[in-house]
Amino acid sequence: MAAVTASDEMAPADDVPIPYMQRTRDYYLALGYDNPYRWAHFAEVPFAPVRAPLSRTRVALITTAAPYQPGVGDQGPGAAYNAAAKFYQVYSAPAEGAPDLRISHVGYDRAQTSAADLNTYFPLARLAEAAAAGRIGALAARFHGLPTNRSHRTTTEADLPELLRRCREDGAEAALLVPS
User: Fold this and answer.
1) In this predicted structure, what is the pLDDT of residue 176?
2) Domains in the chain: how many in total?
3) CA-CA distance, 166 to 163, in Å (whole number)?
């Protein structure tokens, strides 16, 4: 490890972490909501330990990426935010093949990153490789999409029970959630 010296260049004074949580709260108020955005925060988390080694576990992939929707504007890598590309219902699709999923419907730093590599937000091919190599027991036959419609109530009362039903239907013993 090298020692820091007086000649080392210091970062500019404004090079600080972005207070994204406060910025999001302020943004929701500016949009006209009666209260600032509130992130889900639970005293108890409903996770369960994996019962077997991953090498013997069927894993489902859950994504917030949206299926490509022709006719609703640019959804390609680098596209501007596109609310029209959102989806509002849990969906499922076969885990085989190469689905056309996009993330133009979510906010991310488009100046510093790109949506060009599907594996960064939808690592289905990497999970298939992990299954083939024996690192996970199997990949569930379907992957599932979870909407990002910003309603805690809808997510907890409708979307998550439906997602759990589908994962159980597929025999999944663990799930990997990859939010975009």
Assistant:
1) 95
2) 1
3) 5
